[in-house]
Write a structure and sequence with these properties.
Blueprint: H1 5-16, H2 22-34, E1 42-50, E2 53-60, E3 67-69, H3 73-81, E4 85-87, E5 105-112, E6 118-126, H4 134-148
Helix pairs in contact: 1-2, 1-4
Length: 152
């Protein structure tokens, strides 16, 4: 099953309307995303909890890394640069942190609120190589922007 972005966008908007709590938004979005596409092996958030430090937040899938500094891994790179990380082969990414041996590709997107504050990153792992596309990155980025614009 492949994700239907139009349906997902409408569902997430309905489920999160009026919500400003970032953790509640993350939990809802992680659940909806994880069950929307069979490419998604691990779907979750790492929250900014201190300068240059991410800590695991709401997620779906097996265990994840508990803490990730901005200086390490794909999630750290997304947080540090505030740029989407679309990685077709995690083994080819310098400094990749192997939280799960099954991960072959990743898509990590920075999560900001309407004020531009970095709240964390959305990390989607796949057990398939080259699982994600530029379309996935663009559509998920739009959903994040809409969902977290009023988040605290």
């Amino acid at each position: 099953m492949q994700i239907d972005y139009d349906s997902l966008t409408a569902t997430v908007a309905a489920l999160t309307e009026g919500e400003t709590d970032a953790v509640a938004l993350m939990a809802t979005l992680a659940c909806e995303l994880h069950h929307a596409d069979d490419r998604f092996d691990w779907t979750g958030f790492y929250r900014v909890v201190a300068p240059d430090l991410l800590k695991i937040g709401p997620y779906q899938g097996g265990h994840g890394c508990l803490v990730i500094p901005f200086s390490r891994g794909i999630c750290g790179a997304a947080a540090r640069t505030r740029e989407i990380q679309l990685v077709a082969d995690v083994e080819a990414f310098p400094g990749h942190i192997a939280c799960s041996a099954s991960t072959r590709s990743e898509l990590v997107l920075p999560v900001t609120n309407g004020a531009g504050d970095l709240l964390g990153v959305l990390d989607i792992d796949s057990d398939r190589p080259d699982a994600f596309t530029e379309k996935d990155a663009a559509r998920l980025s739009a959903i994040l922007s809409d969902t977290f614009r009023h988040a605290r």
